Amino acid sequence: MSESAPVLALEGVHTHIGQYHILHGVDLTVPRGQVTMLLGRNGAGKTTTLRTIMGLWPARDGRITFAGQPIGGAGITLSTPDIARRGIAYVPENMGIFGDLSVKENLLLAARAARTADDIDTARLEWIFSLFPALRKFWLYPAGKLSGGQKQMLSVARAIVEPRELLLIDEPSKGLAPAIVQNLIGALRELKRTQTTVLLVEQNFAMAKALGDTVAVMDDGRVVHRGAMAELVEDVALQHRLLGLSLAAHG
What we know:
This protein has about 250 residues and is an alpha/beta fold. Helix content is about 35%, strand content about 25%. It has helices at about 45-55, 80-85, 105-110, 120-130, 135, 150-160, 180-195, 205-210, 230-235, 235-245; strands at about 10-15, 20-30, 35-40, 60-65, 70-75, 90, 165-170, 195-200, 215-220, 220-230.
């Protein structure tokens, strides 16, 4: 696969949930080694797009390719675990942590190659602790008793405890205090420096501005704008047309 080829591509993807037709022919490319922001008003189809990529809601039509290989679309029946094993990690909006398990146990479950915590790559674990120091402090603490920000840190840490080629992250800053959001921005910037590819759904436009290389804007189940994040940041009229607000007003 060419280094210049997108790591992920959606072509004409349609998704139905029950009787509802949610995605109406989504076309989206995610360049390798970049952070692609997926923006749009509530209900535009952003979360459905991430869940469709992971096979949680199957695409009825169209095609999804990852690293040049089909993983979803018409006639493709890969399961969500199969898709994950190809090198995609998903951080859902609800974080999906196991509240009755400790921080250590949550990370061990995500480290598929490890049978005990001692099997987790020490250097990688220390790197995660450098990003999220609270996880070292609460290593043996039940995850359900962590603060909202600490739970989000754990959710992201689980996604990166093993190297992944692509991270899908759904609204990581939702409901978090500004100081925690800044910590999260710093951690995701560090991930960018490792050339990890990220597709990030986010309503916090300060985070979008700080992290995004490219951007796709969704409306009514379709991608209606694609381009450089910097260009959207500079074009207030375009922000209003696509999102109904200006990024400047949100930090």
